[in-house]
Amino acid sequence: MTSAKYLSIFSPATKRERRENFENYWEFTQQHGGELFEEDKDLAKKRARLQHFQLHPVKLRRPLADPEAFYRNYIEMQDDPRSLDRMTLMLTCIYKFARHEWVGIKGAWDAVPDMAHSHTVEDKISRVHLAEEFCHVRLFNEILFTCGLDKVEWVPLGPVKEKIYEQFPKFPGFLINSPAFITELMGVTFYCHLYRLFDEILAEEPEVRDRLKELLDEITIDEVAHVGQRRNFIGPVGMKISKVMVRPLYTLFFNDIPEIKLLLDVNQMIKYGVAFDFNELPPHMIERSWIPSYCKA
Ligand SMILES: [Fe+2]
Ligand SMILES: [Fe+2]
Question: Do the domain assignments include residue 36?
């Protein structure tokens, strides 16, 4: 398409462009999230947005037929996933995806310098980034709550996986930058596909469907910005490695969530990740998000 506004996320960038883009992202992120409340791992604007949703709740017209099916399978799948209805599968899938995110950031929060000890723009960006991720877990919790699930617990992974996640942020940049970037890309990929799933699964629940879309938008808008920001950490060699990593990382991650295969096409998501260029995102999302200058046509 000749009218495309944006270029591939894997487009090249010079060192100087990347430095300028860090400065530009830092400006963006401060106005986007508002004040950082470090002790609460929270941000002023994100908090206000969540409170707005909580003050104006919506409910399912027809409550979940079998909430126990969710509670039985949301931490570990106990039943044959094929025996579960698509709504339950979608909700356990959302929890499992969000749980990985939560475990990852919990480990990282203590490993990276707090704002008072962040002396570079990259460190400051990373601190706010993590606070945003904690806001996402609250938004995911609100998604589940909106579907009537008010007893969801955020449970750590097993001790081995927790340790791996804890060590990850302590590795040097050249090792973690590519997987960290692809993980953000995987988030955007999953959320964009999940958004379309709401139309199918919640066709008879327009109020909840629209609310879930609003809640998910709050997350996806941040994640789109994170994709560009994490890409900005990476030089030319790392970008080649990153592109090759899309398939194995997506496959490894999604294999861990048995619901995924029944709800979404993993191969299609891999293709989406490799081809990602911002052009498919709706204008209301682009307006509130951030795209590196070298991805603009
Ligand atoms: Fe996130
Ligand atoms: Fe993110």
Answer: yes
Structural domains in the chain (count): 1
Q: Does residue 9 lie within any of the structural domains?
A: no
Angle at the Cα of 45 (from 39 to 51), degrees rounded to 5? Answer: 90
pLDDT tens digits, 106-130: 888 988 899 999 999 999 999 999 9
Asked if 228 and 9 count as a contact pair (C-beta separation under 8 A), the reply is yes
Tell if the pTM clears 0.90, that is, is over it: yes
Q: Which pLDDT band, with edges at 50, 70 and 90, does 296 fall under?
A: very high
Q: Residue 259 and residue 266: Cα distance in Å, rounded?
A: 11
Q: Say how many Å lie between the CA of residue 256 and the centre of ligand 2.
A: 19
Q: Is residue 127 part of a domain?
A: yes
The bound ligand whose nearest atom lies closest to the alpha carbon of 139 is 1
Range of the domain at 118: 25-295
pLDDT in tens, 137-187: 999 999 999 999 999 999 988 888 777 777 777 777 778 899 999 999 999
Instruction: Read off the CATH number of the domain in which 35 is found.
Output: 1.10.620
Closest ligand (CA of 181) = 2
DSSP sequence for 151-196: --------HHHHHHHHHGGGS-HHHHHHHHHHHHHHHHHHHHHHHH
Token output for 148: 């009537």
- Bin 142: left if φ > 0, else alpha if -120 < ψ < 50, else beta: alpha
Task: Judge whether 16 lies within some domain.
Answer: no
Q: Does the structure show a pLDDT above 60 at 263? A: yes
Instruction: Give residue 222 CA to ligand 2 midpoint distance, Å.
Output: 7
Q: Tell how far the Cα of 201 is from the centroid of ligand 1, in angstroms.
A: 23
Predicted local distance difference test score (pLDDT) of residue 177: 93
DSSP state of 43: E
Compute the mean pLDDT over every residue in the chain, rounded to the nearest whole number.
95
Is 99:155 a contact under the CB 8 Å cutoff? yes
